[in-house]
Amino acid sequence: MQRPPSDQEFTLKETWPKIAGSGNSIGDKLTCTYDLVEQMQYLYVRVVKAKELPHKDVTGGCDPYVEVKLGNYKGITRHFEKKSNPEWDHVFAFSQDRLQASVVEIVVKDKDVVKDDFIGRILFELPEVPRRVPPDSPLAPQWYKLEDKKGDKLKHAEIMLAVWKGTQADECFAEAWHSDAAPVGREGISKIRGKVYLSPKLWYVRVNVIECQDLIPSDRNKPIEACVKVAVGGQSTRTRVSQAKTANPTWNEDIVFVIAEPFEEGIMLTVEDRGNKDEELGKCYLPLHSVNRRWDNKAVQSRWHNLEKHPMVDGEKKEVKFASRIHLRVCLDGGYHVLDESTNYSSDLRPTAKQIWKSSIGVLELGIISAKGLSPMKTREGRATTDAFCVAKYANKWVRTRTIIDNFSPNWNEQYTWEVYDPCTVITIGAFDNGNVHGGNKDSRIGKVRIRLSTLETERVYTHSYPLIALHPSGVKKMGEVQLAVRFSCTSYINMLHKYSQPILPKMHYVHPLSMSQTNNLRYHATQIVSTRLARAEPPLNKEVVEYMLDVGQHIWSVRRSKANFFRIVNVASGFVGLIKWFDSICHWKNPLTTLLIHVLFVILILSPDLILPTIFLYLFVLGIWRYRWKPRHPPHMDIKLSHADAVSYDELDEEFDTFPTSKGSNLVRMRYDRLRSIGGRIQTVAGDLATQGERFHSLLSWRDPRASALFVTFCLMAAIVLYVTPFQVVSLLGVFYVLRHPRFRTKLPSMPSNFFRRLPSGADRML
Q: How confident is residue 52, by pLDDT bands cut at 50, 70 and 90?
């Protein structure tokens, strides 16, 4: 049996890193470019070029390369064939935490088949190396005479170098070779570097297929069952078959696709005859760069397009002089936000068209400091290891930290910035194991964190250690912790407050809404486009990383998620249930003093009805101020109890991680199907009960039960007469006193209105 997880293991922990932004830094804040991460000291060596290198080969040539050595660490540039004046322009970065020597040695060698020949070297004492602090300009490289092994200067050979001490704020940091990446060959350095990616700009393209004219089928004696197949890239769909079975069919049907800039493909329309084995009646190709763009609901001008048809005659295509036509209305809808994330935790809500963007309201800064206690993700040379990197996604900007090789507690200390246009958005940070370092091609997920910006106070730096929680077929597991520093700075507080009164999505989503099935289908294609484009970058952001960050596949059925959502509903309804129980205790005089006070309150409100609404709002105000003392001090994080991950069974997890379609055996599938039928039966019963109550309400005046309807109509007449002659306040007071009557005047039997309502007919007795 799995050990039940402890609450403390998955809690959020506040940390106090030595960063300038939180005031915990022991260094000079003015010299710190990145104030949300800890300063990491590096020794930088920039090898620019060399000249007049002597020939060492028997053939009289020179194949030079440079070796930079500092203690046990050694970095090597690429070598050149037969070149005495090579240019490398390569930067090496050695972490000061791992310095094991007081001298850095730069050696120029001649690559040979048997043994590389020594050309010359130069030494630098570390205490003499200058320090550079951005925003100072880069240190200018200088020419140095190479020395032989005895320390004597060579006559001609020189090398251009720059050596300095700096931090990760240096401009050369991202492209430099790092000493912690020493196990990776020079060819693999590009796969572990940190990068910033931009998602492609996504558009909705709307194709309104109106009608066709003069279609020519091969068999003119048969009615034409025409439909139009529309394809864009890997997406395709068909219109319905036209009701008019003639040569001039009509549809007037909208079809929407997702496309990305730059537009690489156009729209292909094919008119088919479904009644004649999908015979092609004509084709039409529309390049996307010629399509009109709009960002409002204004009508787009429709156009007629010729349908091309090239029938085969004796194995050759024959041109047709007469062309059928198709009537279309095509546009690029820039007024929508193309959804590639769930709307519940979307990071961007702006429309595609920049012309209707609002101004930004603030800046989000994220410091990815470190991780600790990461779980082993793979084995290399017989031992467990992890090559960790982080990915953060907000709006259309993705950032990827550098990969720290073979370290369960990596330190990244990288800081990134985003513009914020809406406070009710979410930033997602994921941790992964790099599978491309040693010839692999798939990255493994470690865990992720979501932070909603609206839960953050402005200008405050949040420094916390977030648990990385992952759900495996064996159960929920903590994969480690990631330490983050987050700050949300507001540039316009009025604009930010104004955002709370605006619609979440752009106006077009409400003026011309898409259906739920359309939205889900388009979101799937949008995620596929984004993952494909980012996988073509260098280093690639693999498809499994993008899909994990975008939560692809979360709509698949899961017993665990269904239970979690059910208990969320129960938790929301518990407040109303508690209110009903409290009022029931008042009605049954369990606390006589409270019941008397409620009597007095109701009498005052009935006699002065203009005080009802002010009293309600005053109560809510006082309640809100009272609860301010217990407001959350930390941002929210993944909750295993809310996710129902701490009480899930192995069979439910096995079903959740099953492929779609299933790959399990027939017996197991039959058992799960029966379980699903059982759950569906209970839902069906609840839905039937709700329908029954609604039908009973409708039957009051339907005369389905003539006696019940007659009684109800008579009661309504008598009630109208009484209420006409009796003041409303008197009726209200009598109603309150009746509801709050003492228990000695009550009975355990149901009330007369309840008995009457339950006797009304419903549609349940007419169900098969």
A: confident
